Records
---
Amino acid sequence: MWGALLGATTGAGLLLVLARLRVVRRPQLAARVLPYVRDLPQGVGPGAARSTGAGTEPVAVAVFGPVLRSLARSIERVLGGSASVRRRLHRAGLDRTVHEFRIEQVQWGLVAFAVAAAWGLLRTLGDPGAVVSSALVCALAFVAGVLGRDHHLSEQVHTRERRILAEFPTVAELLALAVAAGESPVGALDRVVSRSGGELSADLARVLAEVRTGEPVGAAFDTLAASSGLPLVSRFAQGIATAVERGTPLADVLHAQAADVREAGRRELIESAARREVLMMVPVVFLVLPVTILFAFWPGVVGLDLTTP
């Protein structure tokens, strides 16, 4: 009986493995269709947004969804500024809606509230009269968590924009070289996007997708100029749009803009060094100078000790 049971279990396991291998080896629909629609903008229309967002919610949102959404709506009514949040989400390159960002703020606030509540519970066990102050600390922790997520979003925007500024001269030079070699603006854009990676390349890939779906090149770059929070990138997009519409030499425009970005970065580095001149003197005054004085005078002090009767 035991042998028959073990044999049946082994056979059933092998059948399950073979059935799963057949399913795994079968090409998925996304793998067959994705190479043909890769350049199309994602999330066009409400149906696409629902299909792409389905199944990607965190566990906490799936379980406590109604409560979190209610708190998110309350935070939206209190804080407001949905236009600013939407603009910063776009500048940070985050594929989220304002409501999803408010839910993240609630989650950050609840985590801070839980940490403060645990600390307040331990404090209350030793001092029962500290209940009111612990409750106040918990409320302040929730507010700090909510505002901390907003501050983190601003930091994400600044980090991404610094990366874009670091990538911009190289991308502009590559575009200029491709155009000077005889490529059309769209062909040069396709060549640079396919051979580079980064935040600016992702923005240019979206521009290329819009152009391939029928939007004029000038209008697509005007959209990039309007949505970008960096003046240099806005001037870059406006310059390309103007060059395409009026037929001006595009390679010269791109070379000039790359040189302007490098010069701006050099000026910013010099200004940063001038602002931090006092801080740069701290290691010299408090570290290098005392060591130098010690090496200069210590042999003399030892010699005096040795010769003193």
Note: The first helix runs from residue 2 to 25.
---
Amino acid sequence: MTADFYAAFVIGLMGAGHCLGMCGGVSAAITLGIQGNQQSSRWPYLVLYNFGRIASYMVAGAIIGGAFANLANYGGQVTALASLRLLAAIMMILLALYIGQWWYGVSKIEVVGKGLWRYLSPAAKKLLPLRSPFAAIPFGMIWGWLPCGLVYSTLSWAAVAGSAASGASVMLAFGLGTLPAMFAVGSMANQFQKWLRNLYFKRASALLLLAYGVHTGYIAIKQIM
């Protein structure tokens, strides 16, 4: 596993507060109407919903990673990938500012995917209420394309992964990092949610991401020069 894999996992984990706002409501909503009040009856829906969601992240990562790898090979791999990595580092820094609640500019890139989501959203609504746990898979796959600045920022790392497989791996790591927040919402773990939303936790996480972004940017600049 590469450093980018672990970085993507940390982005997913540390961006939990954003995940709670964007997808947390859906994660909780899919459990409504399930027969029985036992907590165990919720888990198949939650697991399969998140399986579908992460699968879409991996598809997007494979497309982006493969496309940019081909472009890099066409235009000179070292310089092209270093330039892309510099862009990814900048996105990491902007993401850190967002998570730390110092600057929210990264959320503006969510407008990029709103056109596609306009067509996908009705399909997701038609699947509700979920009739079986397996119906949660296509629902999660559709929801994985929800416009999200956190996802788009991580895709910039998938772009410099070097191949379609590596791009998918980066997005898999990101998706795995988001799971604690998604399961916490679905299982109503209120204490864990409070911890994820804690400002001190967010800012400590943001500082780590900021340091990683600056370090990565410095290395990319040296390669370009």
Note: Residues 3-32+39-224 form one domain.
---
Amino acid sequence: MSARPHRDDFDKYMVPCFSPAPFIPVKASGSQVWDQQGKTYIDLAGGIAVNALGHANPHLAEALKAQIDRLWHIGNGYTNEPVLQLAKTLVESTFADKVFFCNSGAEANEAALKLARKVAADRHGKGKSEIIAFQNAFHGRTLFTVTVGGQPKYSADYAPLPGDITHLPYNDLQAVSDHISERTCAVIVEPIIGEGGVRPADPAFLQGLRQLCDRYHATLIFDEVQTGAGRTGSLYAYQHYGVEPDILTSAKGLGGGFPIGAMLTRDAWAQAFQPGTHGTTFGGNPLAATVASSVLAQLDSALLEGVKARHSWIVARLAALTTQYGVFSDIRGAGLLIGAELAAPYRGKAKTLTNLAAEEGVIALIAGPDVLRFAPALNISYSDLETAFARLERAIVRFVG
């Protein structure tokens, strides 16, 4: 029998795109994770906002096991019952008329950007191709989406990059108003910038983008890969902003840990994609669709109210830690997507703090070098939160010295 895998095996066998933690998780339930040595962690990261209902959620597991005995994959020359049910639920729950399924947020954004350019070309000609995006945004790792994301550190190595993409300051409506023109085919925006520091959009900013896109016949795309599936206390963040996009992208929490992505759009946009114009091999497969439907079935009003209550609890605890230790300068976000920016003496050391937190038994995230990011399961218990923040406080005591 072969030896048990060790963390060193990552360095030996894996392409080094990542630098994983020194421990290897082997089992998880709810918001608790155990590593190979049996050490327990409280998960405040949620697989980067993916495990919306916790690890090994029994409802998701039961749904998946039932579907495994029926149909796994059939190919896009056919449809299947689970994907039709999922599409119906999403359409009836949102602004959208049609849905395209894929496997990830990057693929969903790729589809959205391609659709926006095709709609503009079909309606107005090839000259209407500019995409406006925002600095410090993140939209995926394909060549197109990583270029549209406003972080050159992720795209510069892959030049020449796709063209006709403009990056403007986030939350600066005047900058957009000064730049947008009849050449603009789309504006893509995260209602809350995630990877770039957990920065919520001002309501007036999103409202203004909607008005500008209407004026210049541009497609408004909301990237809700991280903010969707109940993460902010609404099914999608646009619903509490009161601004409807033309296209919305979803992934991460939609599958509760099973890979799925979705592009939601209005019928007038959807018709620009016809057989052969875009596609996917695995997108909309019965297994992923079944799990996603089970996720949505659990995102009822009580759970979403619980998200808002947990937000208040976490923000209050972070504020108390700030008062006692002076470690954070700003706490921001919505629902269970929360960013805590490090105070000036500790800037650039977010990773150091998350490493200390892991040593104490808490899994947390960063959002850039200066921000701790929290994206736990939407149903995390208060008991687990109490344990996690007691451990986080121990890490902070070590951090501030």
Note: The chain has two domains: 7-52+301-400, 59-298.
